[in-house]
Amino acid sequence: MRHTTRKVAGAIAAVSLSLCATAAGAETVRIETGTSAGLTTLIPQLLAKSLSNEGVDFRINADQTLTRSALSLGVGRIDAAIVPPPAFNAMSRGVGPYKDSADQAKATAAELRSLFPFAGGVFHPIVWADSGIETWEDMRGKRIFIGPPAGAANQQITTLIRLASGGFEPDKDYTPVRLGWGAAIPSFQDGQFDVLVMSSPAGGAAIEQIGLQRKIRLIGVPAEVLKTEEWAEQLEVTGETNAVIAPGTYSGQDNSDEEIAVPAYAMVFAVNRKMDDDLAYIITKTYWENIDEYKKSVAELAQLPTSEPLAGNNIPLHPGAVRYYEEEGMAIPDRLMANQ
């Protein structure tokens, strides 16, 4: 895929969550994102700044539970949302957090279309270095944060714990703690739970800040687990991949000399299928034309892959996005081509 770049001025901190000062007549896009400290919000923030030059105004509502945002998107209450692939999978089948309204969830899922996926980050299993927890077995009977209530991360994290520990189940072998992402780190620091499984880019500032208060330890997935068929099957279902947190990534990490094996997860920038084709095209094109500059401007984005632009995506593409990829000469998998 060809890439051109534009100048992205200033640091990411200067990007407002609501870019209101746009030109008269700008196209407004209401979008819901995940934690304000993660890539699910950072990517739309950067894209919003680029799109302001195209007459498009992003109104970003961060720190949302993305399984609910997917529903809001499907019924047209918002125009775009960051959707985890497992959430769309569950939504399409009416299971998991959607089991109580399965028929509605399936119908709503049919209204979603994608523009592009991106690497959302990696799961960080974190404990205090002086907690006595050094292995997954040591987590037996402990309180473990598993993500927001009804969030897609619940399934991903509980499955991670089950496979890495050799069979731990919530409410039996440990106490699951469900809170919004925004409350996760302060609650961990206050001692409300023993293990924090946090989603963040490797090297994320939020994780670094935890270790400045008190030494932390990261618990990786055992090598023998990574070789199992069940682990491989889980990665395929969730759109995850194997990743590592390199030695020396965090200054406050007690075992910083170790390479920590963890799963990396994808996120999808999704829109309602009724979005105007030209608008969907502009958003998609602007993202890819600026991706190299985004990666240069923010260190946490250096991990973003561009060699496989559709990797991790399981939501059919919007026609406007299809137009862009076809212009770039990309072969689009049949599974990502919508019927309408």
From TrEMBL:
InterPro entries from the entry?
TRAP_TAXI
Q: What Pfam families would the database entry show?
A: NMT1_3 (PF16868)
**Alphabetized UniProt keyword annotations:** Signal
N-terminal signal peptide: 1-23
Annotated coiled-coil segments of the chain: none
Going by the entry's taxonomy, the superkingdom of the source organism is recorded as Bacteria
NCBIfam families per record: TRAP_TAXI
Recorded hits in PANTHER family, A to Z, give: SLL1037 PROTEIN (PTHR42941:SF1)
Q: What protein name applies here?
A: TAXI family TRAP transporter solute-binding subunit
Record the organism. Answer: Chelativorans salis
